[in-house]
Amino acid sequence: MKVSVVIPCYNESKTLQEIIDRVRQAPVDGLEVIVVDDCSTDGSAQLLKGELASQVERVVFHERNQGKGAALRSGFAEVTGDVVIVQDADLEYDPQEYPKLLAPIIAGKADVVFGSRFAGGQPHRVVYFWHMVANRILTLASNMLTNINLTDMETCFKVFRADVLTRITIEEDRFGFEPEVTAKVARLGCVIYEVGISYYGRTYAEGKKIGWRDGVRAFYAILKYNIWRRQG
C-alpha cells in the first residue's frame, strides 16, 4: 500500500526542514511526500526550490496566497498513493504516529481516520483554553448535523483512502476545509474511525495562524455543507 503525505505550507521556513525530516523518518515504507507552498514570503519557497527539492517527490507553488484548503486541493490532485495523510508543516503533529493512523485502513475497517487530540490519553501541550472551547463547540455543531460522534473534527491529522478523495470536490480555500470534508465524507457513508494522538500545540508567538475569523468561517461551513449545499 503506497502512502502519500500532503503538506500545506505557508511561511514555515523555521520548521520546514525538520518536518520533512520527521516525515521521512516515519515508520512507514515508501512514503510519497508532496508539499504545497501557498505563496510564502519568509523563504519557504526558496528552500523548496533549493536544498529541500530533492527531499520530496513533488512541490506545488501557488502564485498567490489562497489558504490551507486551496493548498490541500492542489496537493490532492498530485497524489499517486492508495492512502493520503494530511500533515501540517509545523511541528504540532508527530509523523511517528502514522502507523496507528493507518492501521484501521490497512485492516480494511475504515475509509477515513481522524487523529483526535482529545481521545486516547496521549501527551498534549497545554495552550489556549478558548481554542479548546471553540473546537468543542464546532465539533458538537458538526456532529449534530452529520450524525457522527467525533471528538475532534478540527484536527489536522486526517487520513483518507485515495478513492474517497476522488469522490468529493474541496471548495473551501481556508480552514473551512475541516468541516467541509467532514460533512462530505459523512454524507458519502464512509466508515470513519478516530485514533487518539499526541499534540504539541504552538503559540501565536511561535507561528500559529488560525484565528477567530476562521472559527466563524468554520461554523458557516458546517451549515453550508450540511444544510444549504448537500452535494459532493
UniProtKB/TrEMBL annotation:
A molecular function (GO) term: transferase activity
InterPro entries in alphabetical order: Glyco_trans_2-like, Glycosyltransferase_2, Nucleotide-diphossugar_trans
Origin species: Oceanococcus atlanticus
Sections of the chain in a coiled coil: none
The protein, known as: Glycosyl transferase family protein
The keyword Nucleotide-binding is annotated on this UniProt entry: no
UniProt keyword NADP present: no
Taxonomic placement: Bacteria, Pseudomonadati, Pseudomonadota, Gammaproteobacteria, Chromatiales
Domain Glycosyltransferase 2-like per the UniProt entry, residue ranges: 4-166
Annotated keywords: Transferase
Top-level taxon of the source organism: Bacteria
